[in-house]
Amino acid sequence: MQNTIKKPELLAPAGNLEKLKMAILYGADAVYLGGKRFGLRAYGGNFSKEEMIEGVKFAHERGRKVYVTANIFPHNNDINEILPYLQELVEVGVDAVLVSDIGLFMLIKNEVPNLEVHISTQANNTNWRAVKAWQDLGAERVVLARELSFAEIKEIREKTDVELEMFVHGAMCISYSGRCLISNYLTGRDSNRGACTQPCRWKYNLTEEKRPGQFFPVTEDENGTYFFNSKDMCLLPYLKDIIECGVDSLKIEGRMKSIHYVASVVSAYRHAIDSYFENPEEFTIKQEWIDELNKVSHREYTSGFSYHKTSCDDQIYNTTSYEHTSDFVGLVLDYDEETKIATIQQRNHLTVGQEIEFFQPDAPLFKQTITEMFNDEGISIEVAPHPQQIITMKMDKPVVPYTILRRDVVTEEN
């Protein structure tokens, strides 16, 4: 039904208040976060009411939006307790709430009608009829299942008017639309109520019923296999196709990832989206955007279901480890323009003589070798080994608060 291409919202994860600020400063149009209850990331940091108030204020002052997840599969006791929480979200001023349960959806529509509702990917909306049904019920947005191709998304767009949101980057679940019970069975922690322990990333071997105690690796890896271990989604190379599908919001996964991850991934997609709309006809993917995505901790990338059904090539069989090309080592807290001195919070081992890259919200990257640094008492030091140690150093170029310091992994290993 919609046939004009509009600039999609860039939606970023906010696992805590610091990540919220980083996401917004590095280019997100909106963030999604969880409160202390009713979301699917029980161990993701999450927000108290006071933190949510501060986060919403920070976002709204910059013209950005905040969405809150309440997308567990609720039981009776949850329904009995959630209404005061929803009313609290209205008081805080959040822009929307995400739900997956139709009973909870109707509760909001009946009891908190001024709270905008987005339908979570957990509702696994894989066809236009389902999306149209949510639209007719009054949902303002539907988050599409990850199991859709671009062709299917285009058809959904053509036959519906509700806002559509899709995942473009981040971890993939081995189970359909995230509905997994492995964590429940192996650990007793319910993945559908926010307590997933990610057992799909553990090491596994096979056994044969008549050979108890004999373990057979599925591959040649002597440590076993990781056959539940999906590659990470990365759709930035296909951004033109995504935008031309007509979706309204592009969602990055990762509320439990680092601020380095949030800033880097948001920045890459921000620049790519803006570049497309500056000149759609001549738009090309720049290597610097891909390099930025490779700097953060990630598994090997895949395009998921976008062009074809997934196969064995979309799984990782020989490791559970992540790869990255840069280490996050510090965060700028303050900068004095007169003295050119930056105050920095150490996040990893820093040593005089290291070459450090400075990654800023609204300025080009630059590198600088540390020639001297000082502790919080003004004493010159060679090494900053203590977690979150406060140091100062003179800068070759100006920096702003929330600038990320990182060093090249290859350089350090060499």
Automatic annotation (TrEMBL):
Domain Peptidase family U32 C-terminal: 325-406
Gene3D superfamilies reported for this sequence: Translation factors (2.40.30.10)
Signal peptide: none
Keyword terms of this UniProt record: Hydrolase, Protease
GO molecular function: peptidase activity
Keyword S-adenosyl-L-methionine applies: no
InterPro entries: Peptidase_U32, Peptidase_U32_C, RNA/ubiquinone_mod_enzymes
Any one GO biological process: proteolysis
Domain of life per record: Bacteria
Family named by the database record: Belongs to the peptidase U32 family.
Protein name as catalogued: U32 family peptidase
Native species: Megamonas funiformis
